[in-house]
Design a protein that fits this description.
Blueprint lengths: L12 H11 L4 E5 L5 E5 H17 L7 E5 L4 H12 L3 E4 L6 H11 L1 E7 L3 H7 L8 E5 L10 E2 H5 L16 E6 L9 E5 H11 L12 E4 L11 H8 L2 E4 L6 H10 L4 E4 L1 H13 L11 E4 L6 H11 L3 E6 L6 E4 L10 H8 L4 E2 L4 E5 L14 E6 L22 E9 L5 E6 L4 E3 L2 E3 L1 H8 L5 E11 L3 E10 L7 H8 L11 E4 L13 H8 L2 H7 L1
Parallel strand pairs: 1-11, 3-4, 3-5, 4-8, 5-6, 6-7, 10-11, 10-12, 12-13, 13-14, 24-25
Antiparallel strand pairs: 1-2, 8-9, 14-15, 15-16, 17-18, 18-19, 19-20, 21-22, 23-24
The structure holds adenosine monophosphate (AMP).
Length: 542
């Protein structure tokens, strides 16, 4: 045994905050305000204000392990909370402002939130659930316009008298830094506790070149909300590398985002496919309006990015999409569709690979298993449930719920049905709860959706299971057409026919104005099933 060993230096977010002040003090944080003006601060301000915030929260009685919740859009003060709360040893809990008040009440009580920091514009929502949550002791309101009513403290007034220096405590890297809740559409949301260590390792691996590759010259725009899975770690990656960060506030429509990207010379943006579908449609309409020449990567994740979207950005606008997969339970990054240089693919195969969900990033392991829990072959065809493990994969949920998701040998069952090919590229066919089983055979709704969205008239498509008297289930397609475009059911069927076995073709196409969305902007198939799931049965009976 060697006597020498390395230092036991804790992997904590505090280091990123200190580093930002030491080396990236002049780096800018840009916030788009509700009135569309932009506020600018620096990482030196971030450090100074995080110190003041830590003092203020301590004065309010927040101690180690206490939960401080936020109900906020993406803005500079939310970033302060992202750093200051974990650095002082407390735990940040980001509440999803798109949830129903009853769900918010459940989550805030479940997480035992002690202090809640709320954007002034979200106070009406907060008041709808706060009275039901007994554990909330203090409310702090963010907003510049006018005094706060008697039940809240003003964020700026709270910070003003505090010293702008603090010696953050030396924390155990395994201590909790953040709690995020799953956006489960069935059952109660479950809390996932991110530790300092998991967030730091996730950040370091995210910054690797073939992962997301952040650099100090990047200008990072998290379109993904800071209330969803730590905004995919982007705030921490930006602070760690000294990249400029642009926070869009509440304006998430395609035109506002494109204005912001062009004006701030954004190099890196990330969000769910529904956002990017809208952006691509607008860019197609006005190809010359926005100068996006600074953009080096647009990360799409959270739901499957259709190949037509990836190809459309590249071939028509010269914009590169990086497709990634992750979950709240995985901090969230798990896989990235990076095309390895040794693969030597032609253009079509390269697009196919970039449209896959990719392969596991360093320190994440992936496998897929059959109903008997045995690992399946990596042949690109056999479907099974994806399991992952690694240092930023949840080992349990807060409160010990959902035990069946964690296997005895240390894997997390993702609930995604996938294939994995010989090179390790994973392709999602469905969520287990969304799979369509027709006459005992699995049909991949994602594959049909991707094909439908490659039709020039189709803006969005969601394929879901409808009950069927003979086959058990059959696929139905909900389709939103592009403005001013038409396509008949026969045309859409003809578009699909060459690509799929006959039994995969949807029994019907429903033309909708909008596909319902989850609180994180994904297609909400359970709502489609609730509304149209009995359509075929009704037709059969009469
Ligand atoms: P959430 O915890 O809300 O982020 O949801 C995680 C789930 O989103 C995963 O289990 C997948 O079903 C889905 N998801 C995330 N990224 C992708 C992707 N790139 N392609 C398809 N589905 C995805």
């Amino acid at each position: 045994m060697f006597a020498g060993r390395m230092m036991d230096y804790p992997l904590t977010l505090t280091h990123f905050l200190e580093r930002a002040r030491t080396y990236h003090a002049r780096c800018e944080i840009v916030t788009q305000n509700p009135d569309r003006t932009c506020s600018r601060a620096t990482y030196a301000d971030l450090h100074r204000r995080a110190a003041k915030l830590a003092h203020a929260l301590t004065r309010l009685g927040v101690g180690p392990g206490d939960r401080v919740a936020t109900l906020s859009w993406n803005h500079a003060r939310h970033l302060e909370l992202y750093l200051a709360v974990p650095a002082m040893g407390a735990v940040l809990h980001t509440l999803n402002l798109r949830l129903h008040p009853n769900e918010l009440a459940y989550i805030a009580a479940h997480a035992e939130d002690k202090v809640v920091v709320v954007d002034r514009s979200l106070l009406p929502l907060f008041r709808k659930f706060a009275p039901q949550v007994r554990c909330i002791r203090r409310v702090i309101v963010i907003g510049d316009d006018g005094p706060v009513d008697s039940d809240g403290l003003d964020y700026e007034a709270l910070l003003a008298p505090e010293p702008d220096h603090v010696d953050f405590p030396r924390l155990d890297e395994r201590s909790a830094a953040m709690v995020c809740y799953t956006s489960g559409t069935t059952g109660n949301p479950k809390g996932v506790v991110y530790s300092h260590r998991s967030l730091v390792l996730h950040t370091l691996v995210s910054c690797m070149h073939d992962t997301l590759g952040f650099r100090d010259r990047d200008v990072v725009l998290p379109v993904v909300p800071m209330f969803h899975a730590a905004a995919w770690g982007l705030p921490y990656s930006a602070v760690a590398t000294g990249a400029r960060i642009v926070l869009p506030g509440p304006h998430l429509d395609p035109a506002s985002l494109l204005d912001l990207m062009a004006r701030e010379r954004v190099t890196f943006a990330a969000g769910v496919p529904t956002i990017w579908l809208g952006i691509l449609a607008l860019l197609d309409e006005h190809p010359e309006r926005w100068d996006l020449s600074a953009m080096r990567a647009m990360v799409i994740g959270g739901a499957a990015a259709p190949p037509a979207l990836i190809d459309g950005f590249l071939s028509r606008h010269g914009l590169v999409v990086t497709h990634a997969w992750g979950m709240t339970e995985t901090n969230p990054l798990g896989t990235v569709a990076h095309v390895r240089s040794t693969l030597d693919l032609d253009a079509a195969a390269s697009l196919d690979t970039r449209a896959s969900q990719g392969y596991a990033v360093p320190f994440i392991e992936q496998r897929h298993v059959g109903p008997d829990d045995r690992p399946l072959p990596w042949d690109g065809a056999t479907m099974g449930e994806l399991e992952v493990r690694g240092p930023w994969v949840a080992a349990s949920y807060l409160g010990g719920e959902g035990e069946d998701r964690f296997t005895k040998d240390g894997w997390f069952k993702t609930g995604d049905v996938v294939t994995i090919d010989a090179d390790g590229y994973m392709r999602i066919a469905d969520r287990t709860k969304d799979v369509i089983k027709s006459g005992g055979e699995w049909i991949s709704s994602v594959a049909i959706e991707n094909a439908l969205m490659s039709h020039p008239a189709v803006l969005e498509a969601a394929v879901f299971a409808a009950r069927h008297p003979t086959w058990g289930e059959r696929p139905l397609a909900a389709v939103v057409l592009r403005q001013g475009q038409t396509a008949s059911k026969d045309e859409l069927c003809a578009h699909l026919e060459p690509r799929f076995a006959k039994y995969w073709l949807p029994d019907d196409f429903l033309f909708l104005d909008r596909i319902p969305r989850t609180s994180t902007g994904k297609f909400l198939k359970s709502k489609l099933r609730d509304e149209f799931g009995d359509l075929l049965e009704k037709r059969a009976s009469g």
